[in-house]
Design a protein that fits this description.
Elements: H1 9-18, E1 23-25, E2 28-34, H2 38-55, E3 60-64, E4 68-73, H3 83-95
Antiparallel strand pairs: 1-2, 2-4, 3-4
Length: about 100
């Protein structure tokens, strides 16, 4: 598989405009979700795992303050944000329960 290339600033801005609640933190796309419970947060993370494995693209995840999940996406071998990060962010959004939105 060809090595992915970092996206330009303009492409990152366009990509973020298409996502709901994701933001850029230097070389990372991030979003925080608040779930209904600790169990709900753990189940949400468990739903992400098989998709990340299929894509061979694994996010950094934090479960904190009982029911909050922070997801951080970057393509390490490209040194920044690539199309693959936006693809996974979009898929993660479809897994979140309604109203999980921003923490």
């Amino acid at each position: 598989m060809a090595k992915l290339k970092k996206l330009s600033e303009q492409k990152i801005k366009r990509g973020l405009a298409k996502l709901n609640g994701w933001k850029r933190e230097k070389k990372v796309l991030s979003k925080e979700f608040t779930l209904s419970s600790f169990t709900g947060a753990a189940k949400f993370i468990a739903k992400i795992a098989p998709i990340a494995n299929r894509m061979d693209h694994h996010p950094d995840l934090q479960l904190y303050r009982y029911k909050r999940v922070k997801i951080m996406l970057t393509t390490h071998d490209a040194g920044g944000i690539t199309r693959k990060d936006f693809d996974l962010a979009s898929k993660i959004d479809t897994l979140a329960p309604p109203g999980a939105g921003q923490a």
